[in-house]
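Many introductory courses stop at the sequence. We go one step further.
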Amino acid sequence: MNVAVDAMGGDHAPEMVVQGAVAAVSELGIDITLVGHEKKIAKALDTRPAHGHISFHHCEDVVEMDESPLKALRGKKDASIKVAFDLVKGGHADAVISAGNSGATLAAGVLALGRIEGVERPAIATIIPTERGRVVLIDVGANVDCRPAQLFQFGVMAQAFACSCLGITNPKVGLLNIGEEESKGNEQARLTHELFDKSELNFVGNVEGRDILMDVVDIVVCDGFVGNIVLKLIEGNVEVMGRLIERELKSSFFGRVALALGRRPIDRFKRKLDYEEQGGGPLLGINGVGVICHGCSSAKAIKNAISMAAQYVNSMVLEKMSLQLKASKIG
């Protein structure tokens, strides 16, 4: 197993990315190829002891977070994210992870590896902890405007991912809407509902935003505009709620006693909802394995994203996704 890591992508690159890669090698036994400016990577690597196999693939350019993805990739043939996917294309790596420009990661993956047969648009999925388990939310930012057929494909891809990587048997699929009734929502939602209803997926109908965290379904399908807002709203709520709880407990003597006694359960609660535990979101639909991380990812998040990418490769989700798309009525 060799994972190509875009060492120059992200707000804290290359330091945090390199530290996460070192942790993955040491703890998971995964070979890593750090892609980017070799001198800058080597300088960051000096801050952490490396145990295991870490190699470098030098390149000069990087796609900045505020650049237009396609324009940047056309002008920067030696960009780290493009080179990373080219390593997979050439058989020198099995997967790519990046905390850089997500649009550039998506575009580089499609340009280098192409799409799985039947997929019109790849999508970014993410795993969100729920009351008793977890739910896959798709799409969370790759596609702002979607046709019903594309939303249906997102559901098919997410089902293959949930079965293969998460071990969920016959996952329940819901379509995010403003109400549970079939007639609710815009034309896009109503036509998408019809496609799911006619399919062999375990479709339970429309779900509302409040249902996402309540274990009503295993998969929630929406376009990338809505999905990205939902994801960031949940992340923001988790962070704020944690601070509010601690603030209230610290405001009284008995609260401070309760906080001291309950520190371990509170920490476990925070870890369960922490995005760093997942690491990143799989890029579903490209003919290869890619994981997109938060731009502000810590070393822990990078390590867990590498772990996710390795699991994605080992579970053969690409093959299963392809078979399900061919078996579906659309693809």
